[in-house]
Amino acid sequence: MTETTDLTEVKAAARKAAFARRKLAFESRPPGAAGRLSEVLAGYRGVPLSGYVPIRTEIDPLPAMAEAAAHGPVGVPVIQGPGQALRFSRWTPEGPMKDGPFGARVPVADDYFDPEILIVPLVAFDAQGSRLGYGGGFYDRTLEGLRAKRPTLAIGFAFDAQEADRLPVEPTDQRLDMIVTESRVLSF
């Protein structure tokens, strides 16, 4: 077996365990996460940001995004295709939405912009700022491109239960700058 195959298998196992932890946390829905995210974003009023429309058992950032939209542009990711970076289309709480790739809702009208802050969904995180996503590399590619242009703040949003002791990482994996959960804010 090659080292890449080994890492792929390790990540798959870590992902499976993390999905189970996230599902349990989602079912119990501990309070406080959206309010904590709103508090963090209040320090960046008016800065263009992107959140996400939650799918499956992802923690819900929509209340914090709605609050931020009153002060500046807020977008959501739109998948362009396999192996491509995400683009971000302007979102408003009352704006019309349609089904996008992977079951995520996206705005009906494309109004793309580059955010300076990304609220990033994840499957698992660790205390070093590493993130385990779904495996498509969309956020890694996107953050690398945005960070090459200007400083871009990546905020992971998750349940406490999604924390892992240590995650397998590759050189292409982009670290998070901050993680917000229902009980705390971690900065790196």
From TrEMBL:
Which key words are in the record? ATP-binding, Ligase, Magnesium, Metal-binding, Nucleotide-binding
Q: Which cofactor does it need?
A: Mg(2+)
Its UniProt entry gives the catalysed reaction(s) as: (6S)-5-formyl-5,6,7,8-tetrahydrofolate + ATP = (6R)-5,10-methenyltetrahydrofolate + ADP + phosphate
> Which Gene3D superfamilies does the UniProt record give?
NagB/RpiA/CoA transferase-like
A Pfam family the protein falls into: 5-FTHF_cyc-lig
EC numbers for this chain = 6.3.3.2
Keyword Ligase listed? The answer is yes
* An MF annotation (GO) of this entry: 5-formyltetrahydrofolate cyclo-ligase activity
SUPFAM superfamilies the UniProt entry points to: NagB/RpiA/CoA transferase-like
For this chain, the family text in UniProt reads: Belongs to the 5-formyltetrahydrofolate cyclo-ligase family.
Q: What is this protein called?
A: 5-formyltetrahydrofolate cyclo-ligase
State the species of origin: Ruegeria sediminis
